[in-house]
UniProtKB/TrEMBL annotation:
It comes from the Bacteria. GO terms for molecular function: oxidoreductase activity, acting on the CH-CH group of donors. PANTHER family: 4-HYDROXYPHENYLACETATE 3-MONOOXYGENASE-RELATED (PTHR36117:SF3). Residues 6-276 form the HpaB/PvcC/4-BUDH N-terminal domain. Keywords: FAD, Flavoprotein, Oxidoreductase. FAD binds at residue 191. Coiled coil: none annotated. It holds the Pfam family HpaB_N. This is 4-hydroxybutyryl-CoA dehydratase. It comes from Candidatus Desulfacyla euxinica. Residues 284-478 form the HpaB/PvcC/4-BUDH C-terminal domain. SUPFAM superfamilies: Acyl-CoA dehydrogenase C-terminal domain-like (SSF47203), Acyl-CoA dehydrogenase NM domain-like (SSF56645).
Length: 486
């Protein structure tokens, strides 16, 4: 594989020329712009892990396509061990960055696409898998970062793709040529988009016959001239403009993934990069599998973040003299308990993985949905406990400018100090980190990333096998089981 460390990944981004806007202005270099650079560094950690002897086994594997060494973020899971190693890798990366490192969306897109196009080919005699394998070999050999692009704008949510007054509310094919297709539309909330090499477009929902032009999977280089990206705002991002390192909270890696709108204005995609074209019957399976893979991740990456947050709160308790209080220990215990509960579900849905007909392994979808649903609750509870333990000064803390001021810096140092011997600056740094990790954008990501809570509840109900459960109850009572109805 070509890109073997974080520095090479960052350098590779400088050779791309994507069109990116932020706050009304163009970003020329995502690796240096204060709004995007932290996210680039977080993604670079996925590359750096491959040269970390302790974790190399998680970060690197063997391609089932070529037998060559590849990064796990480009791998098609071949067994349960692969699923488990992915989960372990994500937790480690969460611990090392304290944020979203973005690269899992492409990995999950690759895996969902691989298993589904195999089934399309089996049923319809198409050659999508061969095309996908060629593209994937390129991705694996170069070790590229792929953004999995699923979520469409959706316009009027009461209508499906084919009934929208504006057809561009869902990415769709506007022209079919002998040598490829032309697509138009947009994808929203795209984690890691501005620092990816490639975009893997997938349909966002199950579709019917009338939506053939919307049933499209294809791959496009991220700097295609027909693509415009608009990078999103995040809570307190103005603090980054002046690179106030303490006030940013986590200056190295950012508080969330770094999301963008990707707009496609009549982008041509050659045939060899098209992996679904009109097969609406398979859109449901694609979305279902992608969602399950991504929801499985959340009990791992977020657990890594919560490990950092728990460590930050525990240290803050030590340096402000509250660590021995029994209620503090109890709340920290609860934070750990909730984190580990989340991790259990990520491990469980991987341990219960199963092979699709393509040979690619899927996680258990029920357990993956339960995992993500729990993240939407436990992360909030952990954040609540962290803020409870940290104290109100996080909301009223003066800025780094005041700390550094010749006139009043000594006052900030005096009145925001904790136990003797620990610089006030250390206490402020930890406080800002807790603020960043429990703030608005970070929690919204846990709520809606990988699908909003209701999306998991729909799948949990659907997968709940209520008929079987009714049979169990009836059997125990000796009632006739044939009366069962779903
Ligand atoms: Fe990966 Fe987690 Fe970020 Fe999703 S939220 S891309 S699973 S790190
Ligand atoms: Fe996410």
């Amino acid at each position: 594989m070509k890109l073997i460390n974080g520095a090479e990944y960052i350098e590779s981004l400088r050779n791309l020329n994507p069109t990116i806007y932020y706050k009304g202005e163009k970003i020329d270099d995502v690796t240096r712009h204060p709004a995007t650079a932290p996210h680039v560094r977080a993604a670079a950690m996925t590359y750096a892990l491959a040269s970390d002897e302790e974790h190399k086994d998680l970060a690197v594997t063997t391609s089932h396509l070529t037998g060559r060494t590849i990064g796990r973020f480009t791998h098609v899971h071949q067994n349960i061990e692969d699923l488990m190693k992915k989960i372990k890798m994500l937790r480690v990366l969460g611990q090392k960055t304290g944020t979203c490192f973005q690269r899992c969306v492409g990995l999950d897109g690759i895996n969902a696409t691989y298993s589904v196009v195999f089934e399309i080919d089996e049923k319809l005699g198409t050659d999508y898998l061969e095309r996908l394998k060629k593209w994937l070999t390129y991705i694996q050999d170069e070790n590229l970062m792929v953004v999995g692009a699923m979520t469409d704008p959706k316009g009027d949510r009461s209508k499906g793709p084919a009934d929208q007054p504006d057809p561009d509310q869902y990415v769709h094919i506007v022209e079919r040529r002998d040598d490829g297709i032309v697509i138009r539309g947009a994808k929203l909330h795209m984690t890691g988009a501005v620092n990816s090499h490639e975009i893997l477009i997938m349909p966002t929902t199950a579709m019917d016959e009338r939506s053939k032009d919307y049933a499209v999977i294809c791959a496009i280089p991220a700097d295609d001239p027909g693509i415009t990206m608009i990078f999103g705002r995040q809570a307190s991002d103005d603090r980054r403009d002046k690179m106030e390192r303490i006030d940013v909270g986590k200056p190295s890696f950012g508080a969330v993934g770094g999301e963008a709108v990707i707009v496609f204005e009549d982008v041509f995609v050659p045939t060899e990069r098209v992996f679904m074209d009109g097969e609406t019957d398979f859109t449901g399976a694609l979305v279902y599998r992608f969602a399950a893979h991504h929801r499985a991740n959340y009990g791992a990456c977020k657990t890594g973040l919560m490990d950092v947050l728990t460590g930050a709160v525990s240290y803050l308790a030590q340096i402000q003299g509250t660590a021995r209080a029994s209620h503090v220990k109890d709340k920290i215990t609860e934070m750990i308990h909730l984190s580990e509960t989340l991790y259990c579900s990520s491990i469980a849905c991987s341990a219960e993985g199963w092979p699709t007909p393509s040979g690619a392994y899927m996680v258990d979808t029920m357990l993956a949905n339960v995992c993500k649903q729990n993240v939407t609750r436990f992360h909030f509870e952990i954040a609540r406990l962290a803020l409870d333990l940290a104290g109100g000064f996080i909301a009223t803390l003066p800025s780094e400018y005041d700390l550094e001021s010749e006139e009043i810096g000594h006052l900030v140092r005096k009145y925001f100090s904790g136990v003797e011997g620990i610089p006030t600056e250390t206490r402020i740094k930890i406080a800002r980190m807790i603020e960043a990790m429990t703030g608005g954008t970070a929690l919204v990501e846990s709520m809606h990333g990988a699908g909003s809570p209701q999306a998991q509840r729909v799948m949990i109900f659907r997968e709940g096998e209520l008929d079987k459960k009714i049979k169990l109850a009836k059997s125990l009572l000796g009632l006739p089981v044939r009366e069962n109805k779903k």
